[in-house]
Design brief:
The protein is α/β, with parallel strands linked by helices. It folds into two domains: 3-150, Mannitol-specific EII, Chain A, CATH 3.40.930.10; 166-296, CBS-domain. Helices cover 37% and strands 19% of the residues. It is built from twelve helices and ten strands. The chain has helices at residues 21-31, 33-36, 41-54, 106-120, 123-130, 135-145, 155-158, 172-182, 202-209, 230-235, 258-267, 288-296; strands spanning 12-14, 62-63, 66-69, 76-88, 91-102, 166-167, 186-190, 196-201, 272-276, 282-287. Strands 1, 2, 3, 4 and 5 form a five-stranded mixed β-sheet that branches. Strands 6-7-8 form a three-stranded mixed β-sheet. A two-stranded antiparallel sheet has the order 9-10. It is elongated and about 65 Å long.
Length: 298
């Protein structure tokens, strides 16, 4: 399926005269009235607002308000184009793409989001679309691009490409500082060529400070006044990440399916899964939160 197949020219609005995003949303929803049937506009606006509270919808030059709606059978896309820009929550953008779908169609929904991102992250596409005079020209241009909307979701669709990483020769203290900065409990470890070498987690680091004999004592309540991390504090500036890191239990490729990712998380108790090319170069990370936000909740 092509992205253009999901578009209808009656849902494309060029240079609408609106003063704010709510007025724009109402106009876009009105263009979809036939497909929305008896679903109230008020409930649709609420659903979009709830989604906006969960995650940002504004990107470099476009906004993607979206929601999954009960009792909606189809996926509906409305597009508004502003040649001179539009003030969307304080940020000037040229495009607003509204996506509404049923709660059961997460696959096509996620893939549609990805296809739209591909379309508008290309600067040449943005320039050409802004030259279009009407909805027919907009639809014709998008049709000519032949952007695919797959019927399945892969690791490359939900991974975080620009992720924090640790280096093999980094000290434990430097690694802890990096975890603290990015609010992460673990990091993939790479070499100077971005090749994946392993992972290091906060659990791995805490193990440095817990002496082996303590792990054999079933109840440590009597150690309230004992400093268990003295060993860690002694070593954090001299011990290297490569001395503590371990191998990932599962490594994904960009084409790994979501179900394979979910099974690795469940069966191997993984918090994060690296996505690598055939040479083990790290391309991104998929976390349990990515599955929650991008697939389950959408």
């Amino acid at each position: 399926m092509k992205l253009a197949d999901l578009l209808d020219k009656k849902h494309i609005i060029c240079n609408p005269k609106v003063s704010d995003k709510i007025e724009l949303y109402n106009l876009m929803l009105k263009s979809c009235a036939d497909e929305l049937g008896n679903i109230s506009q008020y409930s649709l606006l609420n659903a979009i607002a709830e989604r906006e509270q969960l995650a940002p919808v504004v990107f470099e030059n476009f906004a993607l308000p979206h929601a999954r709606i009960e009792n909606l059978d189809n996926l509906i896309i409305a597009l508004a184009l502003f040649k001179d820009g539009f003030n969307f929550d304080g940020q000037k953008i040229n495009f607003v793409i509204m996506i509404l779908t049923s709660q059961e169609k997460s696959k096509i929904y996620l893939q549609t989001l990805r296809a739209i991102s591909i379309l508008f992250q290309n600067k040449q596409n943005v320039e050409n679309l802004l030259k279009c005079e009407d909805c027919d020209e907009v639809l014709h241009y998008i049709s000519a691009l032949k952007i695919e909307v797959s019927d399945y979701v892969l690791a490359k669709d939900i991974m975080t490409a620009e992720c924090a990483t640790a280096k093999e020769n980094m000290t434990i203290r430097e690694c802890l500082n990096l975890m603290f900065k990015h609010e992460l409990s673990g990091l993939p470890v790479i070499d100077d060529n971005n090749k994946l070498k392993g992972e290091i987690s906060l659990t791995d680091i805490l193990n440095i400070g817990i002496l082996d004999y303590l792990k054999k004592i079933p109840n440590l309540a009597f150690l309230k006044k004992f400093e268990p991390f003295e060993e860690l504090l002694k070593k954090e500036n001299s011990m290297k990440v490569k001395e503590v890191m371990r191998q990932f239990a599962f490594i994904a490729t960009p084409e790994t399916s979501v179900i394979e990712l979910a099974m690795a998380i469940v069966e191997k108790s993984m918090r994060r899964i690296p996505v690598c090319d055939k040479n083990k170069k790290l391309l991104g990370i998929v976390t349990r939160t990515d599955l929650l936000k991008k697939v389950i909740v959408g």
